[in-house]
Amino acid sequence: MNRKKILVAVAGACGRMGSTIISLLQKIQDMEAVWLFESKNHPSIGTQAFGLTINDNFEQCPGADVLIDFTTPEATVVNLEIARKKKIKAVVGTTGFSKEQIERIQSFAGEIPIVISPNMSLGVNIMMKIVESAAEMLGKDYEVEIIETHHHNKKDAPSGTALKLGEIINRVRGREAREGFVYGRTGIPGPRTTDEIGIHAVRISEIVGEHTVMFGGKGEILEISHRCFNRESFAQGALIAAKFIVEKETGLYQMSDVIEWFKKPS
Ligand code: NAP
After folding, report:
1. Ligand 1 mean position, distance from CA 22 (Å)
2. Are 114 and 108 in contact (CB under 8 A)?
3. Is 150 considered catalytic here?
């Protein structure tokens, strides 16, 4: 069957994620980058990338099926406002939104469909499901520790993904989102309680991202780990999310929705 190509506008086209997405788009048949744009005054404006000009705005985009945006929270909100006016669907990988910005994104999702996720890697999102199942099966008596490792330039600690893994376990256990979280240990903390979820951030070298959840019981430890070697895993997830979102009309979706859709036989 000759399916129509999905036409993609890429925000932050010269950034680490934007450029990875554009280079992956060159390798697949059913999607095509049609509009690349960067922040105003970016040194790349007017230059060529993969046969397309880097623009300084999204307003003039003549048309696209989906916007993929890995920029900054402020830029994403502006870009989504434009996407809403142009009826362009959106995949958002940007992190660090304020509560107010999330509320605005929710309001846009009443008019266009949006996938938003702080971690677009399929592997990490499947790890979240496995951790959820393990927490359900093991019950409340297993001790939990979460260890994440990232490159030395990472700004925040612990990672949003480590926090989310802990939140999933708390949700299964019927507790508040971050109840019992203990960040690192120092001094003389004494014996741990079963209720604690220890969260530890390692920062070293150029590691893109590693997460391990340990469940400790009597005489055994179950470890669930994920390692990310480069940004292609996030970019690949974003492209799958784009294929998912073009089938939707409105609504705010997460990668868990994308995975449910992805695993269905076509
Ligand atoms: P980056 O290398 O700094 O790229 C961001 C790009 O967006 C920069 O080129 C920036 O230009 C550009 N930009 C800023 N404002 C813009 C605007 N109004 N319109 C268009 N482009 C604009 O950062 P990155 O590593 O690619 O990460 C970008 C975001 O994605 C961050 O929030 C990061 O945490 C997140 N991220 C998410 C995932 C995930 O799986 N969800 C994975 C990796 C990263 P200037 O340099 O001029 O500001």
Report:
1. 13
2. yes
3. yes
Distances, alpha carbon 193 to alpha carbons 180, 185, 266, in Å: 9, 13, 47
pLDDT at 95: 87
Look up the CATH number of the domain holding residue 19: 3.40.50.720
Contact 108, 80 (CB under 8 A): yes
125 touches ligand 1 (CB under 6 Å): no
Active site residue 154: yes
What pTM was estimated for this model as a whole? Answer: 0.88
The residue whose CA has the least distance to atom 9 of ligand 1 is 15
First vs last C-alpha separation in the chain: 13
The number of distinct structural domains making up the chain is 2
C-alpha of residue 21 to centroid of ligand 1, in Å: 12
> 158: cis peptide before it, omega within 30°?
yes
**Predicted local distance difference test score (pLDDT) of residue 265:** 64
For the chain, residues with pLDDT lower than 70 are 1-3, 265-266
- pLDDT digit string, tens, across residues 195-215: 999 999 999 999 999 999 999
**How far, in Å, CA of 242 to CA of 240, rounded?**
5
Residues 108 and 207 in one domain: no
